[in-house]
Specification:
The complex is a heterodimer. By secondary structure, chain A is an all-beta fold. Chain A contains no helices and eleven strands. In chain A, β4 and β5 form a beta hairpin. In chain A, 34% of the residues are buried. By secondary structure, chain B is mainly β. Helices cover 0% and strands 54% of the residues of chain B. Chain B has no helices and eleven strands. In chain B, the strands form two sheets. In chain B, strands 2, 4, 5, 9, 10 and 11 form a six-stranded mixed β-sheet that branches. In chain B, strands 1-3-8-7-6 form a five-stranded antiparallel β-sheet, with no helix packed on it. Chain B is globular, with a radius of gyration of 14 Å. Classes of the chains: A mainly beta, B mainly beta.
Chain lengths: 113, 114
């Protein structure tokens, strides 16, 4: 069964450093999403991406964040200058059509020291 | 925007008992309600979903009910097993306001004791 994959599973970084989280969505999907989940809290929407551009973003997704689909398979989330409060699990998700069910990846645990 | 409330935050049951998790939503235009199971260290996985044109849906030991008038929906797990232990999230999604992004509840930690 096709699945969303994410790398790395765990990323530790120093405050102020840049990180890039990587995702490979399900191959025939068209819509891509990033969510974050701070430990013990609910899943929060960051950004959605379609046709090589951002379609929606939340207030969390400020200028420190960017997304990119550099090739036909990868979808990345970049945090330019990490802060302590960026520590969280980051989930990538994808759907075939906008109204379809979202399929989530296993997540990347980001720890900012 | 949409607001989803989920209760309880923690639910502890004995193996074989039933478990019920309840959610309410605020946007009457929401028309799609998925439920996700999140095991420790993993991403949310869809377990069942319901659209607003039906009132109930079942899949083996799990079922979801939807009351559009009251704007609430519930997850029912019968004959619970230890492997059902996880965090369960409800969500609501729809065309209201043009957003197709689901709004998640805060999650319910289900603990099934053997």
């Amino acid at each position: 069964e096709p699945e969303v994959t994410q790398t790395p599973s765990h990323q530790v970084t120093q405050m102020g450093q840049e990180v890039i989280l990587r995702c490979v969505p399900i191959s025939n999907h068209l819509y891509f999403y990033w969510y974050r989940q701070i430990l013990g809290q609910k899943v929060e929407f960051l950004v959605s991406f379609y046709n090589n551009e951002i379609s929606e973003k939340s207030e969390i997704f400020d200028d420190q964040f960017s997304v990119e689909r550099p090739d036909g398979s990868n979808f990345t989330l970049k945090i330019r200058s990490t802060k302590l409060e960026d520590s969280a699990m980051y989930f990538c998700a994808s759907t075939g059509q906008r109204t379809d069910t979202q399929y989530f990846g296993p997540g990347t645990r980001l720890t900012v020291l | 925007g949409e607001n989803v409330e989920q209760h309880p935050s923690t639910l502890s049951v004995q193996e074989g008992d039933s478990a019920v998790i309840k959610c309410t939503y605020s946007d009457s235009a929401s028309n799609y309600f998925p439920w996700y199971k999140q095991e420790l260290g993993k991403g949310p996985q869809l377990i069942i979903d319901i659209r607003s044109n039906v009132g109930e849906k079942k899949d083996q030991r799990i079922a979801v009910t939807l009351n559009k008038t009251a704007k609430h929906f519930s997850l029912h797990i019968t004959e619970t097993q230890p492997e059902d232990s996880a965090v369960y999230f409800c969500a609501a999604k729809g065309p209201g306001g043009g957003s197709y992004i689901p709004t998640f509840g805060r999650g319910t930690s289900l603990i099934v004791h053997p």
